[in-house]
Amino acid sequence: MLANSIRQSVYCDELQLGSCLNHCIESGHQATFSLWLSLLSPDVCDQPQFDFVSESPAKTQINWRSYFQLDSGQPLYASEDDWSSEIKRKDYVQDGSLAALHLDKALKQPPFCFEKPHLDLDVINNLSLLAQLKYRQSYQSDQDGEEQDEPEQIKPAAMVNVLEGFDYSKPLTLATASS
Questions:
Q1: CA–CA distance, 52 with 64 (Å, rounded to integer)
Q2: How many CA atoms lie within 13 A of 118 on its CB side?
Q3: 72-76, 125-129, 148-152: the lowest-pLDDT one
């Protein structure tokens, strides 16, 4: 009796975790499923066997801003056009025309940041290897100037293929560049 009441309030074995995962899949609660799955490992949701089947494109591509006739919203980072509009706003402030400044901001909201933030090297080194690879890949794509709608996801299964091809029988040597 006491064991059943404990099992109902506290998760104490894999059977309960499995039943919760199954219930989340049946009811379609993807966020709860990912939360329970992350109890096993922080990178387990990146495994290919846990990818959810995406919904039909008609459901996922509803643009709610156009549906409610809203503007594009406030951008996160500045583009080249935003710098010229900030110079124009500076002129409004210098001329003392605050009404024109408020009108300009109401028509086109300024971005939140004008420079993209970068993480310190100590912070990056404390991340998991998968998170380090994802950050470095996104950082390099930002430097290249390529705009991608969706960055390519690095799956841990791809890293296993690299490790399987390594020859562990050869001794490791340090190669130095001669000058």
A1: 23
A2: 9
A3: 148-152
Helix (DSSP H) and strand (DSSP E) numbers for the chain: 10, 0
Residue/partner pairs of 44-48 with CB below 8 Å, 24 or more apart: 46/130, 46/153, 46/154, 46/155, 46/156, 47/155, 47/156, 47/157, 48/155, 48/157
Rounded to whole angstroms, the Cα distance separating 27 from 110 reads: 41
User: Partners of 77 in the beta sheet?
Assistant: 113
Distance set, CA 17 to CA 63, 106, 128 (Å):
36, 50, 24
The string of pLDDT tens digits covering residues 106-123 is 888 888 887 766 778 888
Residue bearing tokens 């190669």: 175
- Amino acid identity of 52? F
Helix (H, G, I), strand (E, B) or coil at 68: coil
Tell me the DSSP string of 166-179.
--TTSPP-------
130 touches 43 (CB < 8 A): yes
Identity of residue 23: H
pTM: predicted TM-score of the whole model, two decimal places: 0.34
CA distances from 169 to 72, 86, 166, 172, 175 (A): 57, 61, 9, 9, 18
